[in-house]
Amino acid sequence: MAAPDSVPVLRRLPSARTIGLTVGAGRAAIGAIFLAAPVSSVRLLGLDTATATRVTWLARMTAARDGVLGAGTLVSSARREGAGGWLLAGSVSDAVDAVVLVAALRDGKVRGRRAQAITAGAIGAALAAAAAAVDVVRHG
Predict the structure, then answer these.
(1) How far is CA 10 from CA 76, 82, 84, 106, 122, in A?
(2) Euclidean distance between the first and final Cα of the chain, in Å?
(3) To bridge 10 with a disulfide, which of 4, 25, 69, 112 should be the other Cys (CB 3.0-4.6 Å)?
(4) CB 1 within 8 A of CB 33
(5) Is 1 part of any domain?
């Protein structure tokens, strides 16, 4: 496999620490927003208000998960200690979210451009966190 320095596109990627800080902060913020405003947050997926109100408990569970994963990723990346595990856990979480959201979009359970953008964001976050986790494991 080519070294990152020999592949031009890889030289331009942010460092694993930068990705960890960004993903961690973003995930913690999303968790806080979903916890504070679960109905509005779930409505972004194209759900009506009544359905969003019925699933506030699920939004809050997801918010807690994202908040903890985000805080762990953020702190471990800032300290440069143990970030690989947090990044990998977040990557798996985002990948599962993306698979579930793709199925929900396909089945019409969620709809709209915002739901598509959130799905794309989950895919991007999963890939970025996975790449950063690999980098942390390889290079410390």
Answers:
(1) 23, 23, 19, 33, 21
(2) 19
(3) 4
(4) no
(5) no
Number of domains in the chain: 1
pTM of the model: 0.83
- How far is 19 from 133, CA to CA, in rounded Å? 9
Place of tokens 């990627």: 13
pLDDT at 14: 85
Instruction: Please check whether residue 2 lies inside any domain of the structure.
Output: no
Reported as a pLDDT band with limits 50, 70 and 90, residue 10 is low
CA-derived radius of gyration, the chain: 16
What does the pLDDT read at residue 5?
Answer: 53
Within 8 A by CB and 6+ apart from 138, the residues are none
CB atoms within 10 A of CB 67: 19
Contact, 40 vs 60, CB < 8 A?
Answer: no
Only one residue has tokens 């993306």, namely 98
